[in-house]
Design a protein that fits this description.
alpha/beta; Phosphorylase Kinase, domain 1; Barwin-like endoglucanases; seven-stranded mixed sheet; six-stranded mixed barrel; 27 helices; about 15% strand
């Protein structure tokens, strides 16, 4: 069955057709009901019969119509000729792309090519299924993605503790009694690295059944306002808080290691480490009192069930991997892992963890390092902060050609000026994208895929992070135009042209996403295993269920699902334990004497040069740059690219509401209007990410009307999490003043 057209029962117009499919613009996988007549979308609403999202739909889904109809969206390949873009045929574009890449690799070596993948690729099963053959066909070590400006510490921690980078536990929200959220705002993110569907209803249900929600965040977010309790915390000190909580749990014998010993090793090492961090030692640094820390530990360990969850605020900082490790450790030592109401593991119909884990592809860390800065690879990818270095630094292995796929590193990577300088210097650049944006404007060729509604949809990645096991497939709403190509077809064609093996060329040429998906489904935990007499889940059965299939609540699966050599959770991975020395030096070592070398954040704050800490934030209608070109999201409400600042900090600087302020860091300066609010901790300023659409040469007409500023103009590419190379996008030291008040004499970083 290629499509599923359900006639609207409430309409006499036979030409009105109704389609049901999951949203493609986020992790929450909301079920949508889309009505179409004469090739035009009449409405998009939440599917009330979708058991997972129960009729909920966030504002982003309304943009699907505008994405499909957007006049700015490219519908055929284009080539940059001077300052002009000229149309190309597909064969010409694909042939020239592969000839240029192959020519550069032949002259300079395979590593002269690099690839960068953006966030939208994770929501597209066709791309995910065809990506790996293309990467292998390029034969390059220079592979980058938004993983290392988003969730890399979570994946590294999962690999080191559970044995697989994608074995990521999620909160069992439907049954938990105590939901402890650190550095996340799920009411706005709709559940990041936690596919929940109707997250507001799930959070309210926790409270309605007598449970508690506690949020720790430098900002009183929308989630914090709903919660039972909120604590401000100084950015970047989450690891100290968690160590002190673990200290309290061990000291007061509130741990459950007598029960967990069979599943874990390393608890004695963790106990000894935590012993060095009593709450009194960290309270002045975190901003949370010792009594409050102890009460948090007691409440968490004493709840019938509890789940601690952290996201961008804990991942995107200098100690993101340590913090992610300690979040998992807090859950584990209190037996809040792999049981109802705790952190649990999803079991999707297509179990990529199982397939890759059995073949030893669960992850690897630091098998090689980047050429320039020696940053570690993780599962074949280098940190995004290394991309500009690899392009700009001459010598053997210098990157000279780049393929970007649905990514915008010009906005999403730290020190964006350096990134743009690198993109401009490339010998050849090709982008798979349907917009001329801040990154693709530097490309030589752009290869645009069809719109979301012209492709089928299956959430291959997000279903592995669902808080309840589910499965759903969405057929295309519109048939793609003649000559148009889906992203997986573009990837397949590039692979066939770059791949030298005839067998691998044939494997790519004579398969399809649904063929591969159906095969993986049959081999999965609910599948028919090729036996026609056995009942099991097949792709055909799923296609007949337009509202999805409920596969049941999360179930216990340990130790069978672990991929560590000894089939035990590693509570004290040596990489984490070793990095604690850096944590000690940062927060407890005596301030270093200032030299010409850049000092650490602590000493910079102390000498008052950079006297505030910058954090990012998510916005529901403006989640990422790729939602900024749609009137339904951008034309309503107040200006969204605005800084948030506490009135106490503003008063010290003679700043008033709506003033234009200057925010300076070690690498740059930006100017932005400010909103004063007590919902942000004193000493902290927040600027949303994804903005900065004033770059010349872009073709995003709506976004340019609401350009805003790019926060990555002032984030530092040298400030990273040393364990994995994740960019430290939160806790950035900055100086803030009125835009015309530069009496301190600080000069812009660029």
């Amino acid at each position: 069955m290629k499509t599923k057209d359900l006639q609207d029962k409430n309409s006499n117009h036979s030409k009105i057709k109704t389609y049901y499919r999951p949203c493609t613009l986020g992790e929450s996988m909301c079920g949508l009901e889309i009505k179409v007549q004469h090739g035009k979308i009449l409405s998009i609403i939440g599917d009330k019969e979708d058991f997972f999202s129960q009729g909920h739909m966030c504002p982003k889904a309304m943009a699907l119509k505008e994405i499909h109809e957007d006049p700015d969206r490219l519908r055929h390949p284009v080539k940059r000729v001077g300052n002009r873009w000229e149309p190309m045929g597909w064969k010409e574009a694909l042939d020239e792309t592969t000839e240029r890449i192959s020519g550069i690799q032949k002259k300079y070596g395979n590593n002269a090519a690099a690839v960068y993948m953006g966030t939208p690729t994770a929501f597209n099963y066709g791309f995910l299924l065809y990506m790996l053959p293309l990467i292998k066909a390029l034969h390059t070590k220079n592979r980058f993605s938004t993983t290392s400006v988003d969730q890399l510490p979570l994946m590294v921690s999962a690999y080191l503790m559970f044995g697989h980078q994608a074995l990521l536990p999620v909160p069992d929200l439907d049954r938990t009694d105590f939901f402890f959220i650190i550095g996340s705002n799920p009411l706005v993110s709709m559940g990041s690295m936690m596919s929940a569907g109707n997250i507001r209803k799930k959070l309210k249900s926790v409270l309605h059944r007598g449970g508690k929600i506690v949020v720790v965040d430098p900002r009183r977010t929308r989630t914090a306002q709903l919660a039972s309790r909120h604590h401000f915390i100084r950015p970047g000190t989450d690891a100290l808080l968690l160590l002190a909580m673990i200290n309290t749990i061990f000291e007061e014998n509130r741990d459950a290691m007598d029960r967990m010993k069979v599943l874990c090793n390393g608890d004695n090492i963790l106990r000894n480490i935590a012993g060095r961090y009593p709450p009194e030692r960290v309270e002045g640094l975190t901003g949370i009192t010792a009594d409050e820390i102890r009460q948090l530990a007691r409440d968490f360990s004493g709840a019938p069930s509890a789940a601690c969850y952290g996201r961008m605020g804990t991942s995107g900082q200098e100690f993101g991997t340590i913090t992610s490790w300690l979040i998992y450790a807090l859950n584990i030592i209190t037996a809040n892992i792999d049981r109802p109401g705790s952190l649990m593991f999803s079991r999707p119909a297509v179990d990529l963890v199982d397939f890759t884990g059995k073949t030893g592809q669960g992850g690897h860390l630091a098998r090689w390092h980047s050429r320039v800065r020696g940053l570690p690879e993780f599962s074949g990818e280098l940190p995004a902060v290394a991309l500009a270095d690899e392009i700009l630094t001459q010598g053997d292995g210098q990157v000279r050609t780049l393929l970007t796929m649905a990514g915008n590193p010009a906005l999403s990577s730290p020190n964006s000026a350096r990134t743009e300088k690198a993109l401009k210097s490339l010998d050849f650049m090709v982008s798979m994208d349907f917009y001329i944006n801040e990154t693709t404007r530097h490309a030589d060729i752009i290869l645009p895929p069809v719109s979301h509604l012209e492709s089928s949809q299956y959430h291959l990645a997000c279903l592995g992070l669902a808080v309840r096991n589910t499965v759903k497939y969405g057929a295309p709403v519109f048939r793609k135009k003649k000559g148009a190509m889906a992203d997986w077809e573009i990837v397949r064609e590039l692979t066939c042209r770059l791949e030298k093996s005839p067998f691998k060329q044939a494997m790519a040429r004579f398969t399809s996403p649904d063929l591969l998906l159906g095969l993986l489904m049959r081999l999965g935990p609910y599948g028919a295993k090729f036996n026609p007499l056995r009942r099991g889940l097949t792709l055909g059965k799923i296609k007949k269920m337009p509202h999805g299939i409920d596969l049941g609540p999360l179930e216990s699966c340990l130790p069978g699902r672990l991929y560590t050599p000894d089939k035990k959770i590693q509570l004290a991975p040596e990489q984490m334990v070793g990095d604690l020395k850096r944590l000690e030096e940062k927060f407890f070592a005596a301030p270093k004497i200032k030299t010409g070398i850049k000092t650490n954040i602590k000493s910079e704050i102390k000498d008052n040069k950079y006297d505030m800490l910058l954090i990012g934030r998510r916005q529901l209608r403006a989640m990422n740059w790729w939602t900024h070109n749609y009137p339904v999201l951008m034309m309503k409400g107040k200006t969204r690219c605005i800084a948030l600042m506490n009135p106490l900090d503003a008063k010290k600087r003679n700043i008033k509401a709506n003033d234009i302020i200057s925010v300076d860091s070690s690498v740059g300066r930006l100017e932005i209007p400010v909103e004063l609010t007590e919902n942000i901790m004193p000493g902290v300023i927040s600027i949303p990410h994804g903005w900065g659409h004033s770059r010349p040469g872009t073709r995003l007409s709506v976004a340019q009307q609401h350009a805003g500023v790019c926060v990555n103009d002032i984030t530092d590419h040298e400030s990273i999490d040393a364990v994995c190379g994740m960019a430290a996008l939160n806790g950035v030291p900055v100086k803030v003043c009125l835009s015309n008040d530069l009496s301190e004499g600080i000069q812009p970083g660029r």
